[in-house]
Amino acid sequence: MRDITLVYLITLSLVGFFGCKDISDIKNQDMPFKKISSSYSGIEFSNTITPNLENYENLFDYDYFYNGSGVGIADINNDGLQDILFTANQKDNKLYLNKGNLKFEDITSNSGINENKGWASGITFVDINADGWLDIYISQGGPYKPSSRENVLLINNQDLTFTERSKEYGLNDGGISTQSAFFDYDNDGDLDCIVMNENQFFGFDPISFFKKFEDKKILMENSSHLYEQIDGKFINVTEKAGILSPTFGLGLCITDLNDDDWPDIYIANDYYLKDAMYINNKNGTFSNNIKEATKQISFYGMGVDIEDINHDNLSDILVLDMASSDHVRSKTLMASMDTESFDLITNKLDQHYQYMFNSLQLNIGNNKYHNIAHQLNIAKTDWSWAGLIFDFDNDGNEDIFVTNGYRKYALDNDSRIRIDKTKKDYNNKVPIEIKKKLYNELPSEKLSNIMYKNEGNLNFKEISSDSNLLEPSFSNGASYADLDNDGDLDIVVNNIDENAFLYQNLSVENKIGNFLKIKLEGKLSETFAKVTIYFKDKSRKKESKRVRGYLSAVDNSVHFGLGKVTKIDSVLIEWNSREKEVLYDIDANQNIVVKQSNSKINEIKKEKSNFIFEKINDQILFSHNENQYNDFEQEILLPYKQSTLGPHISKADLNGDKIDDFYIGGAFNQEGKLYLSSKDGYFQKTNSSFKNDSKYEDMESIFVDIDNDKDLDLFIVSGGNEFNSRSGELADRVYLNSGNGNFVRDTQEDLENYTISGKTVTPIDYDKDGDMDIIVGNRIQTKKYPIHEPSIIYENINGKLFNNTYNISPDFENFGIINKIITTDFNNDGWNDFIAVGEWTNIGLFLNENGKFRNISYENNLNELYGLWFHIQETDINNDGLKDYVIGNIGNNSKYKTSFEKPLKIFGSDFDGNGTHDIVLSYKYDGQYVPLRGKECSTQQMPFISEKIPSFEEFANASIEDIYGSEILDAYERKVTSFESIILINKGNNQFDIEKLPQIAQSLPILTSDIIDINNDGYEDIIIAGNIYNTEVETPRLDNQFALILVSDKDTGYNVIGPEKSGLYLSGNTKSIKVIDNENIKILVGNNNSSLDIFEMRK
Length: 1099
Hints:
Layout: E1 7-11, E2 33-35, H1 38-41, E3 71-74, E4 83-86, E5 94-100, E6 103-106, H2 108-111, E7 119-126, E8 135-141, E9 152-156, E10 162-164, H3 166-169, E11 177-183, E12 192-197, H4 206-212, H5 216-221, E13 225-230, E14 233-236, H6 238-241, E15 249-255, E16 264-269, E17 276-280, E18 286-288, H7 290-293, E19 297-298, E20 304-307, E21 316-319, H8 327-333, H9 339-348, E22 354-355, E23 359-363, E24 369-371, E25 384-390, E26 399-404, H10 413-425, H11 432-440, E27 447-448, E28 450-456, E29 459-462, E30 472-473, E31 475-481, E32 490-495, E33 501-505, E34 514-521, E35 530-535, E36 538-543, E37 547-548, E38 552-553, E39 558-563, E40 567-574, E41 579-587, E42 590-595, E43 600-601, E44 613-615, E45 649-652, E46 661-664, E47 673-678, E48 681-685, H12 688-692, E49 698-704, E50 713-718, E51 733-739, E52 742-746, H13 749-753, E53 758-764, E54 773-778, E55 792-797, E56 800-803, H14 805-808, H15 810-813, E57 817-824, E58 833-841, E59 844-849, E60 852-855, E61 867-868, E62 871-875, E63 884-888, E64 904-909, E65 918-925, ...
Parallel strand pairs: 19-22, 34-42
Antiparallel strand pairs: 1-42, 2-33, 3-4, 4-5, 5-6, 7-8, 8-9, 9-10, 11-12, 12-13, 13-14, 15-16, 16-17, 17-18, 20-21, 21-23, 23-24, 25-26, 26-28, 27-30, 28-29, 31-32, 32-33, 34-39, 35-36, 35-40, 37-38, 40-41, 41-43, 44-76, 45-46, 46-47, 47-48, 49-50, 50-51, 51-52, 53-54, 54-55, 55-56, 57-58, ...
């Protein structure tokens, strides 16, 4: 029995150990939320905002006018009930005392909370004087001078009244403050403060904007501010701490991102400023690690929350943006990004790859993150503000709640054009009546808030309509807490021009799941203590933090949903002071109070990473150097560059030492390199033939005996998009092995005749004549994506290759854009078959029937499975003697969406008759096919569009036939029905079952792979990787920074080893991966326009 002084247990009488339901079983009467009326709750609050066009209080003159305000929940009178404080921009803030049973009393008038009230935005709580009572800190901004927007600190007088003392404490920050948080950043035992600010230089172009901050005084005024508490006063240490930087701060969260027991800072920035991920250097300074930790972020960063969504005890990061979920809104409201501006922001101004979508940064360990928002289908939630991660239904999975709506759409494209024209007509002196008319014409649309249920295994489902949350509004700040002390989390939302929402959570009443709630009483009110629960060989970890979402503060107790779990084996509480406490045998469905004073200092040993592979500095110094060519200059609507597909690595034992040698292809004007093994490692073997042929762009290569002289020759496919159609630089090449690693270019007449942009090659003896024939998979007519070129089967006759495709496989010629071909014998009849896949193609199974091929994909319905396929890996997943195949698609982490019912389509033609090729991407919306790309970029490619369809509203409501006329019906057309990577499980007799790869494997494009038996169990495992960096600027890059190891489950699927265990963190735009299985296994990773990554297995 534990000493009662160690822990105080409150067993809830309302909750027993009940049988739990899954949320999917809830009937209408079991809706998880119930809206509580203001007449019942007593909450009458609206953030009413009234524009005044005769001063600066309007959207034209103050960009942040409709950014809304927050809500804070905390127990201000220590009665065990959570109270609610609403902040307002122009009206009074309001404080509501919780009287129990979701009834609240408005105590605003006598509380003193509106002393020095200005344009109130964010709210947080802190016991700043350590008297055991929570004080209030309100961040203020508005279109006012600094002295009129100072933040306020309301000291709790312990009698439901407060006294404003911000100046006395040094916390009367005069920036355009949005939110603040208190934390002990230097671990000296007292609370410090971060004040997040907006920027007075909104509306400036990026170059002019950054020019302003050459003046350090102006920079300080427009930076977020860090205050260190010294002897009870807060001193500005922003510059000293290394966080002096311009901000457009909207989202703030303090957490220990790298698990080193020091608090870090995340600030989500609006506009073109990159987010700040300030990692604590443990010496009073911070370093912004956002570019090193992430590959891409949101553009208009808004609310932020940080929590573990996938039970790996690593904190993931949610940042909201403003991408429209509806086709019409996406075409009318969203501005386009041009290549020049994108390059300016990402490269010249040292910002980041930023895209106008929500981001969910999955923590993959080693302080690296992978944005999977598109895969989770949470990337587009409209103009969103608060994003909160919490377990609303107590099922043990963290869900996501999003607030929505914007009072006036100033970014409406048609309105923007009218306003710009009016300003020009009146020389920027627009009469007030005209200004009012334009203002009143701005679109306004209430949108519903959104709840995503976490169904586990990286699957989220929107359930807003099934949760009683589907009510259109202009919602901003939001918070959650167990307001009725029944064990589930209720929601409070602050709305513009409408009464606040209070939603009662009915999960406990509906007996959906068990819970455990832990209140942490630390030496400081803001403890940031970590709590880990252990049960049934599982663990869950959370951190106490108050400031989350948008401008708001939540109850900083730690709440665990437990699902059907009724007993916790142990609970570990870790305080930042290195004190810890362990509790054992904890029953579910109770509140536990843990006091830091009862904990003991105990050095907690962090587990060191013991990666399977380590990155090494090898003597192989190859770096792929991509030539400068902008595919988008001529093909504006191209989905991604066609000229950046290399390098490819091929391997073989060339010198008979039973160690793999390898060739790495070069880019245009870069020779490929051959590396031979020696007793001292690898050395580069110089070949003049390769140097002489540097004018080619190498694609795949293979070592194969072309001339039947018992040594391996080299076949290299030429490709690229920078060459003119049928250019001589597109000829494939054969290099004959003359011994000792020397290769000489061989004359091959048919190769010189068929100059086509290719990609892939495989050797095959299709006619059983003893020599190796060649199949080449070709891609596109250069500069005319997606129009494909014919692929070719070359028959080998006495060492010379002749195109024999028409005679042995005529339907293969017109298969489409081919990215991968492999030779295989899928029916084990002794005749070599082949499989081909590509972009906008199905999966081609070409059965060899006595030297001629027939595509039998229709026998398995593979002829209807169209993808953006890039790769094939032969394996035998279950060792049944039948060859299985992993087929690599681009995965589900793309902004593009498709299905069998609504396939994504692409059209190619010269739609405007100007002699250049045009592309139209299209998807199905409201029963008709509509353009995927917006009006501005489409008009850049085809200027006739602006004349035919002058307004964005018309374009948004037009089908592709409305825009392009009958020409679209006669255009080159292809489709995609799935983006998922799959496994073809061979059942024999040319029959295959289709299995999907695991969810995390669907988060990357599988461009490359190789076989490895990682656990030495005799079953083939597979390393997969791939990236597509060079997307058009409005499409997020496919830029994961890791490889995955697929471990055979010896049946029909794979388990996954991620980089946090394997150590396979990749550095670049990965195109090729090869396992060199010598004395010690090495992995070579070929990256486009970058150096080679080399990993070695730890012994």
